[in-house]
Amino acid sequence: MSGITDFDSLRRAMAENGGQPEGPARNARAEELLVEAERLNIPLAVVEALGHQLKVYNYSSEKDKMFVPFARLLRMWDERPEDFDEYETHSLHWVFKWMSAGMLDQPHIPLASVEKWLGEMERRYRLAGHSERAVRSAEFSVAAHVGDLDRAERAHAAWLAADRDAMADCHACELHGQGWWESERGRDAEAVRLWGPVLDGEFSCAHEPHTVLASSLLPLLRLGRLDEARANHLRGFRLVRSMESMRDAYADHVEFCALTGNEARGLELLAERPAYFTDGGQPRSRLEFMAVVALLMDRLALLGLGDQQVPGPAGRTWTAAALVGHAREEALALAGRFDARNGTSYVSDRARARMARLPLVERLPLGVRGTRPTAAAAPVAAAPAAGRPVAADLGALLAEARRLSDTLQPEAVEAWAAVSRAAEDVELDARDRAEIADHEAMDAGPEGAELFERAAVLYAEAGDPGEALAARTRAAYVRALTGESDTAVATVEGPYDEVLALYAQDGTGVRQTASVLMGRARVLMQRVHAGDGPPPEPVLAAAEAAAREVLALVGGRTQDDVRLASRAAESQAMLAELAALTGDARTGAELFARAAAAFVAAGLPWFAVEYEARLAVLAHQLGDIAEAERALRAALEHGGPHLEAVGRAQLHLQLAEVLGGRGQAEEAAEHALEAAHWADEAGQGPALGAWARHLLGGFLLRQERWAEAAEVLESALPDLSAETHGDGAIVQTQWWLGDCLSELGEHRAAAERRLQAAEIARHWPEQHDHATLAHLAAENLGHAGLPAEADRAYTRAGDLWRAMGNVHGLVRALRARAWLALRAEAGADGTGADKAGTDRARALMTDALRACETALPAADDEEARERLVTELGHTHRQFGDLLARSVVEDSGDESIHGVFEEALSQMAEAVVVFGSLGPRARHSRTGAQLAAGWLEADLGRPADAAARARAVLEAYSADGRSEGAPDGTAGDDETAQARRAEARQLLQVLEEQAAK
User: Fold this and answer.
1) Into how many domains does the chain fold?
2) Which of 913, 898, 953 is nearest to 930 (CA)?
3) Would you call the peptide bond into 209 cis, given omega within 30 degrees of 0 as the criterion?
4) Taking residues 971-994, what's their average pLDDT?
5) In a domain, 945, yes or no
6) What is the DSSP secondary-structure string of 794-819?
């Protein structure tokens, strides 16, 4: 059985099919429905079925199928126009525009046929009395496509000059076309200005702002408006992701990724739509798609990733190098077909230009997951051949390396590496070899201890016993860092005693002595952190004494010696750390600030980064959020280009959290975005990056940037784990995502997210979040048209609210279930409910009233009592509304009268309850009074109804203030205005009834 038995069932089936996702399945169903329509032997049914088929073809990848049903429709119109009603007549003329665009998209249709069709469209529109606006718009599209720019400009001007009428495209589509042309002509700023009303949501339609968001990406990048480009990509891609017919807009998003250093995301986009490589129903959009595929593959090849496996046409495995050739060939072949049809080279020229575009920004962070593809590291340049004269170069390299070392520059280690490479086959003296080994050790991490020992031997051989002792101390520190704290402490005592003796005999300088003392202090500080619990007092005391000893040695000697200044600053930082460890956060903060300032004063700001960051943590603990913010900003500034990716990510993340806590969501989002980017760069995407995306999504949500937030939060979820981030972070992310999806109207998806979060929260000791999430999910399920599922979720929430003693949550859940019961059992006309639904709804509302009334005597204080009274008033009001709406129109007068009397009783109770709360509940009271007034009018009691309307007018005095409104508060708000208007409307209706 097909289920199509009459015209109404056919229309319901077409409406249902129209709501299905775009694609071949929907198209196939439309074809089946046309067969069913023909069986009904009703001409209008066939017309509507053909129109439905046309629409689903147009919004799919099978656009080439549109021409057959349209030709049949046009023939039917020419033969029997009386078979078309007003709507189908309008639709027939409307889809002329689809045919015009559709012909341009098909290179096998001759240009002469396109021009002939344009003339036919103009003739028929004139006969139907339509403006030429849509015709000139179609002409503009033809001229712009073939590259006849003069004709395109004339048609564009004529299009804008013609009157808008019922055949004109919607404002959103027209603005898209106008802005596109401005961008094509190099006027990007004007294009973005024209698109403004669409981007801001003033105008929209089935495909807007989807296409405007996509078209705006390249102009915004060229204008340097990167934040807007990022936002439009995140918003726009979300809209086109599931729409099969929007391959050209999808291509714009892939191109955006290729031009902003987001090649990895571009590959993800290609992987989501494998059919786009081969769908042939719209050759022009396939040309655009293959052109940007070639562009993206070229980018990968330039990054040295030509051998990387990439998504491509089904049937084989593709590398970037192979796909770039295939995509380029396909794009140019398609372009050639269009040019052969058009008699120009314009389409091919544009395709080549698109494939040759260069990146407009090195890397634009998007906030979503993704790491930049990187090629294998280039081989290190070969060392000079033996016997090659390198002495002069080597001398310069040595001098530069020593200069950088003496001033503690970050580039010193690399400079010494360059010396090492240059000196591979050169005979050096012991001093040179000692310094090379010393700096190799500094760059070797845990493996550096032996290199430091080797450097110590060479320093001694070179006649510098003090530097030899310093190198031995550095070796001990490496061992402390690798877990051998006790051994390191014992080892470092020898160099310490020897250097003090040497220094006392002028056998070494203050620099070398300070280096040994600092090394010993570092070893002792490492022992402070070695245990699992708090360090013993002697350990703390030893570390503090060592730090103070360094300060005593270098005190007064730091002005002209950067190295000594750095020793003094680091000693201050050690004392700060010890103070913080012993619970003296304020002293710790002061000392960290002093250490950071000393490094900056010495011209070594990059060393201040760590201590500004630690100061920020202590300031936050002390409640000095402003100082925490200052310190983090300073750390980022001091680090500059020397910060490693992971450190930069951590600082941006901390600053984002601080700013977010201060309510500065916009700037907090910027720092969370940077944190996510640098975490990905550091390979920390699944840990640090996921947390940054979690925060970024929350900050975007605070700004009501729902689509962007949803993209970011969905990207964060796969990497969030209870072990790393805590299950609270997962619940919060799901919760925020549910909020975003609700705002975007994706209620089923929002419910799924909220229920997933509720499943985690159900295991928590405190059940408030569990109940709230279940309640919110129920709301979504109701909006999604799933009443049974919504009722179950509300029941779950209500049980939780009851168990927690939360009367307000329980009452609201019961009221929501009552409305669901009424609507779920509504009659076919949607105006009433059957007896079972009404009885169930009544029972639930009665339960809600009883819950309020039972809780009132136990209210803890006046505020709690007032909140419960308010809830009671709203429940009476909703009960009255529910009863009034439960009436079925074909019920007898006596039955309707009885239900309205019950509803009026509830409304009257609401008026009394709200009245007991005084001026603060005035709007609620007057709303109930007006509802009661309308019921009394329906019950034939005009005098009582009029009295209620006048009471409302009395409540809102004519001087623009609500009666009883607090001093200095304007009472003439929107609600007051609406109440007065409704009261006057009720009085007018009563007067008109009396006059009849």
Assistant:
1) 2
2) 953
3) yes
4) 89
5) yes
6) HHHHHHHHHHHT-HHHHHHHHHHHHH
Would you state the pLDDT for residue 47?
93
Q: 135 with 97: CB under 8 angstroms?
A: no
How many residues appear in the chain? 996
- Segment 437-481, tens digit of pLDDT: 999 999 888 889 999 999 999 999 999 999 999 999 999 999 999
pLDDT digits (tens, 9 = 90+) for 526-554: 999 987 788 899 999 999 999 999 999 99
User: Among positive and negative, which fits the CA dihedral 604, 610, 616, 619?
Assistant: negative
Q: Is residue 560 part of a domain?
A: yes
Structural element, H or E, at residue 318: strand 318-319
Domain, as residue range, for 582: 555-643
CATH number reported for the structural domain that contains residue 616 in this entry:
1.25.40
> Are 143 and 152 in contact, with CB atoms under 8 Å apart?
yes
Do the domain assignments include residue 585?
yes
pLDDT (tens digit, 9 = 90+) per residue, 361-400? 999 999 998 766 655 433 333 334 334 344 458 989 999 9
Q: Please say if the pLDDT value at position 272 is more than 50.
A: yes
- Enumerate residues 6+ apart whose C-beta is below 8 A from 545: none
- pLDDT(775) > 70: yes
Q: Which of residues 643, 659, 678 is at a domain's end?
A: 643
- Structural tokens at position 842: 């009544």
Does 586 reside within a domain? Answer: yes
Residue pair 922/964 in contact by the 8 Å Cβ criterion: yes
Do 666 and 702 contact (CB within 8 A), yes or no? no
CB count in 10 Å sphere of residue 889: 9
More confident call, 64 vs 212: 212
Q: How is residue 845 written in tokens?
A: 């509302």
In angstroms, what CA-CA distances link 777 with 187, 769, 786? 47, 12, 11
The tens digit of pLDDT for each residue in 142-157 reads 999 999 999 999 999 9
Residue where a domain terminates, one of 615, 643, 671: 643
DSSP for 710-743, written as a single string = HHHHHHHGGG--HHHH-HHHHHHHHHHHHHHHHH
- Residue whose C-alpha is closest to residue 410's, from 599, 583, 593, 686: 599
Tokens 């022009």 sit at which residue? 284
Q: How many Å apart are CA 682 and CA 676, to the nearest integer?
A: 10
Q: How far is CA 593 from the centre of its chain?
A: 36
Q: What is the sign of the dihedral through the CA atoms of 527, 529, 530 and 533?
A: positive
